[in-house]
Amino acid sequence: MAETKPTATAKAATSVQAKKRSNAISWIAPLICLIAGYLIWRFGAGADSGFTAPDPNGGFWPSHQGPKGAFNKMYDGGIIVPVLIACFLIVLTFVIERFLTISKAAGTGNNDEFIRKVQYHLANKNVDAALAECDKQKGSVGNVMKAGLRKYKEMITDTELDTEQKVLSIQKEVEEATSLELPMLEKNLVFLSTIASVATLLGLLGTVMGMIRSFSKLGDEGGGDAARELSKGISEALYNTALGIGTSAVAIIMYNVFTTKIDGITYGIDESGFTLTQSFASLYK
C-alpha cells in the first residue's frame, strides 16, 4: 500500500497588524459643538447688554428687542442659528483633526524621492537600507513599503515557492497593509461632506421660518411701522442663509483639499507596491 505523507497546511504569517484607533471624537465633538453653538447664540449674541430692551425673564429663548450690533442681530435669526453655529464649529473641528492626521500620514519629505531611494537600495540588493528609509519616512507610504519589504526580505531566503508565488505573496502583504492605512485617511471626512449639503438647507429653513414670523407680524399690525418691522425681520432671517452658505463653502473647499491629499498618498502607496513586485521579479528570478 502506498505511503501517504502529511501535507502542511499552515497559513503564512503576516507582519501586518491591525491598529486599534479610537474614534470617540466622531460623537463627542458634534455634541460639544452643539452645546457651544447654543451658548454662543444665547449668551454671546443674545447677551442682555446687546439689546436696548432685553427680556427680564431670560430663559432658554428670551424675547429681546432692539439689537445694538450686527452680532446681536444674529440672535433674532431664531433657534436655527445655534445649530448653524454648531455646524460651523464641527467643520472647524474636523478640519483641524483631518489636517493633523493626513499631515502625519503624508510623512516627512517627498514621496517620489522616498520611492526613488528605495528603488536604488533594492537595485543594490540592500533591503536593510530600504527599511531604514521607511523608518525615516514615517508616513502611510513608508508603513506600507515597510510591510512589503519585510515580506520581500523573507521571500529572498524562501526555497519552497517559485518566483511568481513569491511576488504574489509580496503583493498580498502590500494589499493588507494598504487596507489598514486607507480607512484611517478617509475617516471622519463624512462629516465635512454631510455638512456641506445640510448647512445650506438649514440656513434656508431658518430664513423661511424668520420670514414667516415677519409676514405674520405684518398681517397682524399693518401700517408703516409693520413695514419697517418686516424689513428688519427679513434682514435678521437672512443671517441664517449667510451662516449656512458660509459653512457649506468652507466644508466643500476643505473636503476637496483633503481628498486631493489622500489621492496623492494613495498614488504613492500604489507606486510602492508596484516597485516591490517589479524589483523582486527582476532581481530574484
Automatic annotation (TrEMBL):
Localization, UniProt: Cell membrane; Membrane
Membrane topology: Multi-pass membrane protein
Transmembrane feature ranges: 24-41, 77-96, 189-212, 237-258
A single GO cellular-component term on record: plasma membrane
Gene Ontology terms describing biological process: protein import
Domain named MotA/TolQ/ExbB proton channel: residues: 141-267
Domain of life: Bacteria
Tagged with keyword Membrane: yes
Keyword vocabulary terms for this entry: Cell membrane, Membrane, Protein transport, Transmembrane, Transmembrane helix, Transport
InterPro entries per UniProt: ExbB/TolQ_transport, MotA_ExbB_proton_chnl
Family stated for the protein in its record: Belongs to the exbB/tolQ family.
PANTHER family on file: BIOPOLYMER TRANSPORT PROTEIN EXBB, PROTEIN TOLQ
UniProt-recorded name of the protein: Putative MotA/TolQ/ExbB family membrane protein
